[in-house]
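Handout, tutorial session.
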Amino acid sequence: MQKDTAAIISAAKKRYDRVCSEVGQLTGALHTLKSQLADQGFDTVEDASAHLGNELEAIKGMSEELD
């Protein structure tokens, strides 16, 4: 029974370490994205998303005019 408990604890620790690593990678990616958006003049992801939505609508309108 102690071996089973030790195996469960070991597996849980490995999973915890992997999750922590993945969270660290995602956090780094988000900081990079935020920095890139700031470099392009956007204060928030929502601002960038709204801008892209407006751009998409403009392109859609131009496409409809060509049809």
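The second record follows below. Compare its token runs with those of the first.
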Amino acid sequence: MLHERELPNPPILTILLGLSGNLGAPQLGQQIHTIAIKLGMDSGLVVANALVSMYFKCSSADSLKVFDSMEERDIFTWNTIITGYAQHGLGREAIRMYQLMVSAGVLPNEVTFVGLLHACSHSGLVDEGHQFFKSMSSDYGLTPLLEHYACMVDLLGRAGDVQGAEHFIYDMPIEPDSVIWSALLGACKIHKNVEIGRRAAEKLFSIEPSNAGNYVMLSNIYSSQGMWDEVAKVRKLMKERGVNKDPGCSWMQIKNKMHSFVTGDEEHEQIQNIYATLWELYTLLKATGYVPDTDFVLHDIDEEQKESSLLYHSEKLAVAYGLLVTPKGMPIQIMKNLRICGDCHTFIKFVSSVTKREIDVRDGNRFHHFRNGSCSCGDFW
């Protein structure tokens, strides 16, 4: 467009910034930001809102710089920053922004409360979540929608009250959808609750029989308890229904080029060097206390094979590549299409400690900021 001397307008810039954020491509987003500044369009409300959203999705502190520089803010601005904090697991900051919004005379809407409830869920703020859920109707006359009920199920389930989450669903005044049952199943996976997990999965198999993620989550629950006959039944059911597991995929931007990896990847141009780096890491981490969590392997094979299977998950390949090609001490940013598995989460915590690197992973559910052997999620995801 620029080569053809056609200058982009605010709607085009907004679309491009949205694409940059969804891809997790901060360098591309910064280039578009620079173009907006040169065109004098960066301070307009629509473009500024898109910049805040893009930088949050790319895990960049520039989101706050843009927000603080804005002379005008609307409900979308506030919702964007509340949701951004929620995705990063910064529940208290999301609540603080909500309080500032109300103080500024901006009334919250349904989207605001989805962001707040997500923030509470990802930060373990159960009491606060209950208060916001009640506040919707009592203080603002807003009727909770399915999204809000799903957040409450997620909030209770993540906090370990799986039975309470199930009771909450049955007490709902509206028919639960797949998102709500999926939240319950996800909680059962985290807390290894077989019975409730089975009931949630049966509901999901009825509502969306072709969604592979539901079968995989139930299999994870069974495999964590060594129930291999049940795992085999789930795999058989998937085969009968023609359901294929979604492959894990991770990607990262290095010097304006996107690099993607799938589990067991053999296509990347530096795959042999990546594998060598990964093996060195694996050996070093085991010597410092890392123990592979083979509960996340869905096959009844011996422990050595399970450990080998875990080693080549896409996010581990991306981490190894980042260490291989970026300068020592440089932060590493990775995106993943699915929720990060527990073993990869532990692995990357160890990597951040041993290498003294800051590693950010945006998975299908939230951001994880790994620093010095800890994650911003507090192992609560």
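Points raised in discussion: The longest strand covers residues 249-254.
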